[in-house]
Amino acid sequence: MSDHHPDLTYRLRQQAILSEFGVEALRGDDVDGLLQRATELCAEGMGAEFCKALEHLHDEDMLLVRAGVGWGPNVVGSARVGADLASPAGFALKTGRPVISNHLENEARFRTPQIMAEHGIRRAINVLIENREGAFGVLEVDDTREGMFTEADIAFMQGFANLLGGAIERQRTEGLLRQALTRQDLLVREMSHRVKNSLAIVASLLALQARNADAGPVRDALIDARTRVEAIAGVHDQLWRQGDTTPGEIDLGQFLETLAANLQGSAPSHRILCAAEPLRVSADRAIPMGLMVNELVTNAIKYAYPDRTGEVRVGAACAGGMLVLDVSDDGVGLPADFDIGRASRSLGMRVITNLARQLDARVATPRGQGARFRIEIPLEA
């Protein structure tokens, strides 16, 4: 420290600078930017001409100047300093102890590194940058002028080094976590792709059995089973395709539109319309929703229109903290005494009531032209 600095004011200023950098270190996500900012603030806090942050290159056992202030061209990003005990920075790295050298020209412990000699450096102070992963490198302040670095300056610099070490470790950990999440997402997508393919094979086998079966209850049951399997396969198909979104979630609107299009393909004489708002839902909830829509549309195709042709509408929208699924037609309508809670003789209605129970949903059948099913499902938190 130079003699002309009033000690208390000087130290308070250093603490303010250190606190400022602490906030940046917590928020920063760019190692090079943080290293550069640390060298700027460290030089400012110590009234020094030069500062540099050096990273230890393990394979070469050298210290690379990653950031710095005051240095000439071609130093930051390319200059290297020996990491052995014969250089001040190397000594700090290898021993883990701070190094003060206020008279480099008379120093018997170390040689003066070339870049420091070229810049006329007369005094230097080095502290170790480390974290739980080990030593990252060294933070060094240098000056060409007479003066004295002191133990109090070490405390200031070590504060910067500790903040840097923690920030570097955090960023590396976050990077590894992002890689792990990306890998997990890829694995989930691959698994969904395989599940979808397996379900498609099952659906094809059921369709083959249905074609070979005589017309009647057995054939109808096989066709129903195929459409249910295809509805579940549709969820896994969406999970596989929507890889750039939240893992384990799908766009319900897009899923229902695809489901309606598939059902349209199996009932060409009907017109199946879908108007669904975009909404992200988990696959665990999308499957029962899709199965309910599948059952209701299939029932409408079978029973709503005696002449086997007509319109079936599917809707999905959010209202009052609920997701509302709506399936309606303009056909013969439901029996006057219809009660979904007592419609246990129908497998389709039993499926719907069981699925609604899974979702904590309420199923209503508002009266009007044709049949209408309104399913209110609580939105996920």
UniProtKB/TrEMBL annotation:
Annotated EC: 2.7.13.3
PROSITE patterns: HIS_KIN
InterPro entries per UniProt: GAF, GAF-like_dom_sf, HATPase_C_sf, HATPase_dom, His_kinase_dom, Sig_transdc_His_kin_sub2_dim/P, Sig_transdc_His_kinase_HWE
Catalytic activity: ATP + protein L-histidine = ADP + protein N-phospho-L-histidine
Keywords: ATP-binding, Kinase, Nucleotide-binding, Phosphoprotein, Transferase
One Pfam family from the record: GAF_2
Keyword Kinase among UniProt keywords: yes
Domain Histidine kinase: 190-381
ATP-binding listed as a keyword: yes
SMART domains: GAF, HATPase_c, HWE_HK
The protein's name: histidine kinase
Organism per entry: Methylobacterium cerastii
